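Table 4 source record.
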Amino acid sequence: MRGLPILLGFAAIVFAPLGGVLADDGRSSFDRFADRCLDRGPEYDRAVALARRNNWPALAADLVLSILPLSEPVAFEGWSIGAGSEAPFEALVVGRGMIGDKLVESCTTAFAGADAASFERSLVSTRAANPSGEQNGEGRVRKFFTIERDGFKEAVTLDLPIYPNGSDEVLASVVAEQQIEN
């Protein structure tokens, strides 16, 4: 998650000429993050199927790895959403990896032109996210939260500008233990 402004700017330039599905569907950035990553928790297979169904263009592996919150993923994929539309850049990145002896999945969205303050307020007010830490960087702050759903804890990370202006670059991730359905 290093160099987010540079990565989002580069990705927006690279994917601007491509056709695709409109990212700005009238919902807030937070609502799109919640729908794709948060409401059911990270689901790697579901995200891959959604990307294929919508023909989203794949992101370069190095860009995906720079956004992915897992340090040693066993699988990862990422896509530009809404490439070629008038909407600001948006990306979806998913991964699987091990943390200790647990298989986890992650789901991350990256947005350009989002309202960072509103995004954070929505996370806290609608998902009962509990703050669990914070790291300040050069011009950015990484905020950590926990959410409990159905007895399982999920880790949510927001990477936000220190001074949001309403048209911000926001990176939001959720990491949770993989849930295997029988």
